[in-house]
Design goal:
The protein is an all-alpha fold. The protein has one domain. The chain is built from 3 helices and no strands. Helix 2 packs antiparallel against helix 3. The protein is elongated. The N and C termini lie far apart (50 Å).
């Protein structure tokens, strides 16, 4: 595992989720002017960097397999949570 990739990846994921949430929660009007796209880009880069740092130099050795497996499961849960959040709270059909 490489913490130099996992730390920025997790921070970019958190910043992207918060930025998307703020932009569509009508808290800040400026986010609707285009900053929500930057937040989505940060989220995408974070989702790419985090597993890259997790699986750097191949699969972990058996002594660290438990930590790597837990981090991989957390990453998958995070990705599914983000997809659920975007599907049901951000991308909503227009109300009549």
């Amino acid at each position: 595992m490489d913490w130099e990739l996992m730390t920025p990846g997790s921070l970019l994921i958190a910043g992207g989720v918060v930025g998307i949430w703020i932009s569509y929660a009508n808290i800040a009007e400026t986010f609707l002017q285009g900053l929500h796209a930057i937040s989505a880009y940060c989220l995408l880069v974070g989702v790419i960097l985090f597993p890259g740092g997790l699986l750097k130099d191949g699969l972990p050795s058996p002594k660290g397999a438990a930590a790597a497996g837990a981090a991989l499961i957390i990453t998958m849960i995070l990705a599914f949570t983000i997809a659920f959040f975007l599907r049901f709270f951000v991308i909503t059909p227009p109300t009549p």
